[in-house]
Amino acid sequence: MACALRGVSICGVEHRLAVYRYILMLTAVEGPRRMESAGKETNCRTLASCASGRLNSLQRTMLQWNSLHPYNAVHVVRIPETLDMERLREVINGTLEALGLTGLTLNRDKGAFCYRGGGAPWEIKSLPSGGDPLATICAETEQQLNSAFAESPQFNPFRFFVAATPDSFFLGLTYFHALADAESILVILKHMVESYLGRRGQGYSTPIELYPPCWDRLLSSHPRALVKKLISLPALVRDMRSSCRPKYHDPMDLTNRFTHCSISARNLNFLVLTAKSLNVTVNDLFLALLMKCISTLASARARSGRRSKISVGCIVNVRKDLGADGRGRFGVFLGSFLVTHEVPNEMNLALLADFVRRQTLRIKRDKLYLAASVELGFARFMLRWFSPERRKKLYQKNYPLWGGITNMNLNSLWPQENSGRQVDYLRAVSTGPATPLVLSVTTVGQAANLGITYRQTVFSAADIQCIRDCFEEPRRQLGVWA
Prior knowledge:
The longest helix is centred in the first third of the chain and has 29 residues, at about 15-40. By secondary structure, this protein is α+β, with helices and mostly antiparallel strands. The chain has helices at about 1-5, 15-40, 45-50, 55-65, 85-100, 135-145, 180-195, 220, 225-240, 265-280, 280-300, 320, 350-365, 375-385, 390-400, 410-415, 460-470, 475-480; strands at about 55, 70-80, 105, 110-115, 125, 160-165, 170-175, 255-265, 310-315, 335-340, 405-410, 425-430, 435-445, 445-455. The strands form three sheets. A six-stranded mixed β-sheet has the order 8-14-13-11-9-10, with helices on both faces. Strands 5-6-7-2-12 form a five-stranded mixed β-sheet, sandwiched between helices. Residues about 1-45 have low confidence and may be disordered.
C-alpha cells in the first residue's frame, strides 16, 4: 500500500530492500503462521466442535472495513412466477440447510469461521406493493447496504426481502461480504430459483465446499506473481502520489447511496462492437468510460497541484487462475488491480482506451491481480495503529481511487432457457473506505444491469446521473468524446 511506503525513498536500494523484506514477512508469515496459531490457540468451543475455515487476506481486510461501516453486498433476482410466501420460505430454509450454510460462528480476532448446520428459519422482509417496484427495490437495497449484521460470534450472514408484481416477484439477498463473493451467492440464488420453479427436486442441492484452502499464500502458491508485484511497487507508489484525490466533504461519512440503470441489448452490442473496433476488451472500454465520466470532477483537483493523474480500480474473479472454476467453492476468490492515467478531460476516448489496454495487458500477463494481498496486508498493518477517525481517512489520502468496476456475466454462470421465463439480475456492493464509487455490472442475456453505489460526500445526484447517461446512452456520449 502506498501509504505504508510514503516517506520511504524508493531510489535507495537499501530502503527498497527493507520494504520488500517487510512485505514478504506480511505475505509469507502473517498468513500461514497466524492461521496456524489460530488453529492451535483458539479456545472457542463452538469453533472447536465443528470443521472450521480460515479467512484469506481480502476477507480479513473486509472485516476491518466492516468495523468502520457495514460492508455488505446485495443481489436481487426477478423470478418469473407469482409469489407464494410459504413456498418461498420453505425453499430458502431448505436450500440453506441442504447447502450447510446455517449456524455460522465467526471468530473475528482469529480469522476463523464455521457453519454448524441444522435448521434455521430465515426472516423474509416483504416490501410494499404498488408503484414502481424497481424504485422500491433500490430504496431497500440502499438501506440494506448501510445496515450492519450482528457483532456477536454467532449470527446469520444473510437477509432476504421480496417485492411482488402481478406475474413475478423480486427476491433480494443481502450478505455479509467478508464470507462470500458474487459467484458464491449466485450459487445460492440459482438453487433457490430452480427449486421454486420446480426445475430441481425439493431439498436437492449440489454439494459446495464450505472451507476451501486459503489461496493467497503467495510464496508457496503464486511466487511469480509475488515477485512481479514487488517489482511493480515503486511504480504503484509513484502513481498513487501523482493521482489527484477525490474531495470528501465529510471524510467521516461512509454512508452508501444506491441507484441503478440498464444497458439495453442494442447499446450493449454497440459497446461490444466499439471495443472490438478499438482492439480492447469491453472491460477496458468500461474503465475508460468511467475515467472520462469523472474527469470533469477530477480536472479541477488535478490543476491544484502536482497530482495530475486519475486512478480507478477493477475487481477480478480469480477462480479460473486457481483451478477452482466450477468446483462449487464457497468463499471470496477475488483479486484487484488499478489503472492510472493523466486526467483525460480532453483526450480522445479511443486513445484513452488504448492506454488502459496497455496497462491491463501487463497486469494480466504478470497476474498482478493475484498479489493484491500485498497491498491489503500492508494496509491492515497500518490501520491497526490508527484511531477510528484516521482509519477512515487512510485510503482517501494515500490510495486515492475515484471509483471501481466489478463484472459478472450471468450467461456463462447461469444459462437461461429461451422460453420467456428468464430471470433478471441486479447487484450492489458497499463502497467501503477504499473508493467512493462502485459500478456493479451484470450481463443478463443480451443486456446488462448496472448497480451504482456511491458516497454522496463525494458525488452529487447530478454527477451520478452523468455516469448513468454515459452507460445508458453510449452512442451519444461516445460521439461527443470522439
